[in-house]
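[09:14] KT: can someone run the structure on this one? pasting the chain below
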Amino acid sequence: METPDVSVVVPVYNTMPYLTRCLTSLVEQTIGPERMQIIAVDDGSTDRSGRELDRFAARHPDLFTVIHQANSGGPAGPCNRALDVATGRYVFFVGSDDHLGPEALHRLVAAADSYGSDVVLGKVVGVNSRHIYQDIFARNEVEVSLFDSPLPRSLANTKLFRRDMLERYRIRYPEDLPIGSDLPFTLEACYRARRISVLADYDFYFAVRRFSATNITYLSRHARRLQTVEANVAFVAGLIEPGKQRDAVLAYRFDHEIAKLVEDDLLQLDRATQQLVHDGLGRLVAEHLNDDIADRLGPETRIRLALTRDGTLDDLLAVIRQDAEGGVPRTVVEGSRRYAAYPGFRDPERHLPDACFDVTTVPDWAAKLDATGLAWEDDDLGERVLTITAHTPVPQLAALGADPLTVSAEEIPADTRIIATGTAGTTVRIRFRAADLLAGSDSTGQRRIVSAQVGAFDPDRAAGKASANGAAGSAALRAPRLDGAVPLVRRRGARLYVITPTRDGSGRLMISVVPVTPGRVTARLRQLVRRR
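[09:31] RB: done, structure tokens below
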């Protein structure tokens, strides 16, 4: 048998019925079966996944290699076992609940051959409102840098890798990590690669959010996630020498995986777990969070992480509770310095350093808003618009340099107007046209974080600001005391879509655009039945 162009690796554990769609999308690849090798590793599935793999293998015996093994506790072991038997010039990893566009592998292999790339990213889109960072997919790029691009935000393994590079450096998945094992694998591959390319002009990979949300990542707990974060930060520190390059990678780890551990849901955990997270992150912050990295973080992340290092658990919880329940704190201005007056600021009993609350260098601290009202209305042209009323305790935004103030749902701008000012603060009216939200969303559905920034709307800047707590240069709108609004149903082409403003687990305001499908309707009905 000739060497296949690409070995497709599919780790499988209990993903029916999504697995059928995944395998079908592989069989239907336009690159053709003679240029492919599919290696599926059944990691001790207890549903029908193993039988489904065998069914496909029986139909396509020259295409499929199926390996059945006892459950290993995560995808790392199955991926490594598949790599050991792969023979393709390239390797591509597919989650068994995801699927590919028909031309995905053909386009990826052609690009790698044409550009001499060791790693190729194809555009990933979310299904069922799964949020996928899109800034790395802004345009086609023959070559991108790991250290001077949004790539460190997108280190999932859903990429094409040159196999002889993986073998030359013996790059494998760490099997002691039940979750997050693809980050060190992908990071090292990108670090070793001679060239990394991006293809953004086709929907290559459809990342599915299961209606039941039962995969291992969704179900992971804080203690396990802390273990993963500690291991991944140690891996970065061991792979990359201290300096700007390491900081560029670690900044995304702090802004995402680490920041997620101090989101609002920390308030709901038991005291022992809260303390574990506080102390573990405090050690990471003390060792790795320098000024260069801190300057890239949003205000909430900076303050909360500083308190894991310089404050007690109760200090941290008080700040989180303020954001989750109280809203934006006032700003204290002293000369050229600005401070966020969270609980604990200059409390003589707490002895917390002012530096924990210093937001002087945070570009858009003044853009931190609380959404206080949501409504669907008709504008002057009779078009449906989502109107968001938001508030900040800052009496005059211009005095803090927040003039103009712009709001967007990532790359979709809103009409933003200040409608009231006074000693109680500033009220802002934000309007999104339903037509814009619908036209700008993928056919599979999309969720966008609503964020504010100081200055004119910049789509490139907006595309990169959907971070854990608002990236540096933006501030995610929060909705601490706001119930969800009524969804709006609109048609695009032959399909119906539901546009819904919603609040995520950390109180951030998001706008979800999802297609009406039988599966979604069934899942919604099941949720309603369970609530009764």
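[09:33] KT: thanks! The first strand starts at residue 6 and ends at 12.
[09:34] RB: yep, looked fine to me
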